[in-house]
Each structure stands twice: as C-alpha cells, then as structure tokens.
C-alpha cells in the first residue's frame, strides 16, 4: 500500500474565507496559524503529532498527551517514553496533570533542569471519573486557592518557559468556575488560557458554548484566550475566532481520523489553496503511514498496528466500508495484514457527504464523580489524599 499522504489541491479560498488575524503568542513562541492540537490521552503521541505536522507544513502548535506529574517525577518508564519529542518538534509542548502543588512544582523544575520541553500546559479540563474523583482535571478549579497554589508553583518553577492552562466552564451549570479561574491564571503569571465550552457534566455531549469563550476573553484581556469545542472543519475555527474574539483555537476530536485537518486550517487562515477532500485511496495511505509510525515509535510492528486499531472507525467514517471489513481492519496485527485488508477496499470512493461531524467521545454528561464534600468550601486548599494523582500518564 502506498503510504503517500499528499492530497490534491483545490483552487484558492476567497478572501472572505480567510481569517484576518495575527500569530498566537505563547511566551517567546509565535504560533502561526493560531491553531493548537489538543492533548488527547492515547491519541496525541509522537506518531500522531508527526502526521498532523506533516499536513500543516510544521505550522501550528502540537501538544503531547497528558503527563501525570507524579509519574514524571518518579521517572515511570511509560511516562518517560511518552515525553519523547521528535527532533523536528519546535516548540516542544507538554501537558501536565497534577493535583498537588509540590508535585507539580517538582515536575516543572525537572522539565526545566533537564530541558524536556519548551512549553508547559496544565490540564484542568479532563472530565473522566478516574480524574475528577481525585479532585483533578475539570473538578479542580472549583477549589480556587488550590488552583492558585498549583499555578504559583508551576509558574514559579518554570523560569523562562511559558505556562498555559486548559479548562472547562466548570463542574456543571450550577458550579461555573471559568471566569474565576481565568482571573486567577492572570494573577499568577499564566501565559494563555484555553477554554472548552462545556462543563464537566456535559462530557462531550450537546453543543459547545462559544459565548462562554467570548465572555472569558472579555474578562481576561491581558492574555491570549483560546477556544475549544465543536471544531470539525477549518471554517469552524475561523468562525469561532470571528464570533468570540478569541486569539486562537484548540482542535481535539475534529482531527480524529483527520490529521489533514491541519493542512485545511493553514489554508483557511492564510487564504491559500485549500487541500481537496481526500478519496478513500488517499485515506488508506494515511492509515498505513499512521500504523507504520506507531510501530516505529513502539519499536514493535505488532504493537503499533494493534495500537492503531482504535483509529480505524474514525478514518473510515462515512465511506462505504462494511461492518465486516471494518472488523477485519480493526483486528489487523501486522502491516502486511493491514495492507491486505486496505487493498480489498473500493479505493476509488470519493470523499463522502457523511464523513463530517462528531467523532470520538460523543456521550452526553452524567453526574460528575467528585471527592466526598468537594462542593463544600470552594476555597479549601487541601489535596485529596496521598493517592490523589494517577500513578501513570495518559488519563
């Protein structure tokens, strides 16, 4: 199977389609276009970042998957592998998850002392129960003083490295925290804030609240504000910036099975030739390349192809690929086996009308799992127990 990933070009975009904006400034790093790959556990590893950067021509900012501060400080083997950056990744952007100020500070000092990254992002947006039940992720900003203490430790130990944060609107509609969190971030010297326009209770369901992004931009004009949520196509990113006044966008589920979206985003912001939507032959080439990169990264072809399996449904969404063929693709255990199944597809299919829209997690929210008594005092600074942090990364 040909692993080529170049896709044909359409004509230039109209002037109205291009975004009239300036580069996103993250400390000393000027990011153009103002587009950031969202950290996604098990997804935004080095191979996926490589694919996205290849399509964008190296433009934009591509963040690692979430790294647990305790595991980093303990030099957990899995974590040390996850923090490896390709020599071409500049700036090297690492997202940290932590709930204990001292541990977060130690992790940041380690990053600085050992030159492990050029930019640190802190996760206060993850809504999954194994994170929120420990008071982490999107649960943590409710504890204003704990948030302040973590940010103070991170920024204070970062030296010249810029520190940014990613968060949600709050725990639920009755416990919104994003405006307070934004003001605290400014006060503690955070360089930029990103807001996913959903609460933790919404998880990934419903529609992202872009108006909240606009309100946050009005509340913290001192620093860049990035918007996140429901960016499925390049024109969604342009529209978000126009409607909210935000300084940049963070793209998460929209690029699942669509790493070429970053090429579309470059074209949209620069007003240049827009890449054509790929047919199944081009998509199959990207799939093969992705699996191969994973095998190289894991130093094990079989493990790489097995890790790739979760991407199959995202890449093939909308195409006429039967359930049995999808099952075969998702059960491949070698590149040769994957090649054989890809060759059996009707590769002459054009881009289908049903290929756009939500991918990845789409479930509506449930009750947010929180530590006992978490909603009592919003200014309590206590960390929830000695086991509050996950002991491995990628949650």
Instruction: Tell me the overall shape.
Output: globular
CATH fold label of the largest domain: TIM Barrel
Helix content: 25-40%
User: Under the CATH scheme, which architecture of the largest domain would be assigned?
Assistant: Alpha-Beta Barrel
CATH superfamily of the largest domain: Aldolase class I
Low-confidence stretches: 1-19
- Total helices: the number is 15
Radius of gyration: 21 Å
> How would you characterize the largest beta sheet?
9 strands, parallel
Query: What strand line-up does the widest sheet have?
Result: 5-4-12-11-10-9-8-7-6
Structural class: alpha/beta
Kindly state the number of beta strands: 13
Mean pLDDT across all residues, rounded?
91
Please trace the helix and strand order, writing H or E for each element.
Answer: EEEEHEEHHEHEHHEHEHEHEHEHHHHH
What's the N-to-C terminus distance? 34 Å
CATH uppermost class of the largest domain: Alpha Beta
The percent range for strand residues is 5-15%
Number of domains: 2
Descriptive notes:
This protein has 15 helices and 13 strands. With 395 residues, it is of the alpha/beta class. Helix 1 runs parallel beside helix 10, helix 6 packs parallel to helix 7 and helix 9 packs across helix 10. It has 2 domains: 258 residues, Alpha-Beta Barrel (TIM Barrel), CATH 3.20.20.70; 70 residues. Helix content is 36%, strand content 13%. A 9-stranded parallel sheet has the order 5-4-12-11-10-9-8-7-6. The protein has a two-stranded antiparallel sheet with strand order 1-13. Strands 2-3 form a two-stranded antiparallel sheet. A hairpin with a 2-residue loop joins strand 2 and strand 3.
């Amino acid at each position: 199977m040909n692993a080529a990933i170049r896709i044909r070009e359409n004509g230039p975009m109209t002037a109205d389609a291009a975004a009239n904006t300036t580069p996103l400034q993250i400390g000393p790093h000027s990011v153009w276009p103002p587009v950031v790959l969202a950290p996604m556990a098990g997804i935004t590893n080095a191979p996926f970042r490589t694919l996205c950067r290849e399509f964008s021509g190296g433009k934009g900012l591509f963040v690692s998957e979430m790294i647990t501060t305790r595991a980093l400080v303990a030099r957990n083997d899995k974590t040390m592998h996850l923090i490896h950056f390709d020599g071409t990744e500049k700036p090297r952007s690492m997202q940290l998850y932590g709930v204990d100020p001292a541990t977060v500070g130690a992790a940041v000092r380690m990053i600085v002392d050992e030159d492990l990254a050029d930019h640190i992002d802190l996760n206060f947006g993850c809504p999954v129960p194994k994170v929120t039940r420990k008071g982490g992720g999107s649960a943590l900003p409710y504890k204003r003083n704990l948030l302040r203490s973590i940010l103070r430790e991170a920024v204070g130990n970062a030296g010249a490295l810029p520190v940014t944060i990613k968060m949600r609107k709050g725990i639920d509609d009755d416990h919104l925290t994003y405006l307070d969190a934004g003001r605290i971030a400014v006060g503690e010297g955070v360089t930029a804030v990103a807001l996913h326009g959903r609460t933790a209770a919404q998880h990934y369901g419903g529609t992202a609240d872009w108006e909240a992004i606009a309100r946050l931009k009005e509340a913290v004009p001192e620093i860049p504000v990035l918007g996140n949520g429901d960016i499925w196509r390049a024109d969604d990113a342009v529209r978000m910036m126009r409607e909210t006044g935000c300084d940049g966008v963070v793209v998460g589920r929209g690029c699942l099975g669509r790493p070429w979206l970053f090429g579309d985003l470059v074209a949209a912001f620069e007003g240049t030739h827009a890449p054509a939507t790929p047919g199944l032959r081009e998509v199959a080439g990207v799939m093969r390349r992705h699996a191969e990169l994973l095998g190289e990264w894991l130093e094990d072809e079989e493990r790489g192809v097995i890790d790739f399996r979760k991407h199959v449904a995202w890449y093939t969404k909308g195409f006429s690929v039967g359930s049995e063929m999808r099952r075969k693709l998702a059960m491949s255990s070698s590149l040769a086996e994957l090649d054989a199944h890809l060759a059996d597809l009707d590769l002459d299919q054009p881009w289908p009308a049903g290929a756009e829209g939500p991918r990845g997690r789409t479930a509506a929210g449930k009750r947010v799992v929180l530590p006992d008594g978490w909603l009592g005092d919003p200014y309590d600074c206590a960390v929830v127990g000695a086991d509050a942090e996950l002991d491995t990364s990628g949650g």
